[in-house]
Amino acid sequence: MRLNGFSLEILVNGEPLVEITEPTSKCKNMTTGPSHTRKSITAPEDPSPMIHYAAVQEFGTRYAIRFSAPPLSCQDDPIKVFLYVDGEYDYSYTDINPLKLGETRTCFWSKNRDKIYYFKFDPTIWSEEDDKNRQSPGKILPFGGPGAVSVYFYRAQRIAWNVAPPPDYNVEPTVVPENNNTRAIKLSTQYEVQSVPNPTITRFDTYLQEHGPPLAVLHLHYRAAAWLRARGHSFPSARQMIGSNLTPQCIEVVDDQSSVKIKQEGVTIKEEPVDDLYSNAAGTGTRRRKKSSTPEIIVLSSDDEDHATSSKKTRLLNNGYSRN
């Protein structure tokens, strides 16, 4: 998806997933607020009238998240980007500047950098009926939400380091409460965990402090391809895409309510049968990690594919915003 120069994509096997847009007026059960941008930190929000969906063809596949900012947004000051998956994050941020306008993330990291948590699509973990701490129906999380990848772009300033280490935290799959807002989320993000021997953390002299509200907030909701087709959308299956030389394009599909645009990209994975997509959802534990009201941040310089590169430089720094 692209919104006023800011972009967000989900990649499988290096290729962006097919994307579909629908008017937000048609989507009564959104798990996030609308995507939006603003011209400056003092300007009002300009909300997008559309919700963006990425079509997931198969459970059990790893994926990556690619995001970028337009050059003009960081020509004077850097941009600080927070990534949320299903409303969760790993207390890290990405430094966007004229020399680096984008980043691709494949995983979250543990606090001590001794574990890598690769993103993977799997059946949703539903909360138990007697879970007293489950999210109430209709509640929208302060950052991101179930079934969505979200990025927040902040204007920032590089200042001297003067922070404490981050709080203890665990990277765990989000447990989703089953209600009218979430029932369509048949898959969510689980993690493939890989241990890192002899991890190292390098401290730096500066970090980025964000200022004001975000310049852009992008939410890319991911759903099973079968669910999107059941809503009347038509797009190539993974089998049809394999071996094809389709170039990226947008086509317009008309359903019984409104026209929607579909972004076609190559996908090199097989399609999950409809019955499997709707029968694999799992209901397991409901353990959640606690969050600090004033968390600090670990900065990642990179999160390349394997633990051989896990010694790349990182830094610890203050979060700088409230999660109220």
How would you characterize this protein structure?
- This protein has one domain (2-318).
- 5% of the residues lie in helices and 39% in strands.
- The strands form four sheets. Strands 4, 5, 6, 7, 9, 10, 15, 18, 19, 20, 21 and 22 form a twelve-stranded mixed sheet that branches.
- The protein has three helices and 22 strands.
- Residues 130-138 and 247-324 have low confidence and may be disordered.
- The protein has helices at 225-230, 238-241, 274-279, and strands spanning 2-3, 6-12, 15-16, 19-23, 36-37, 46-47, 50-56, 64-68, 79-85, 92-96, 102-105, 107-109, 115-123, 125-126, 148-160, 175-176, 187-195, 206-224, 249-254, 259-264, 296-300, 314-318.
- With 324 residues, it is mostly beta strands.
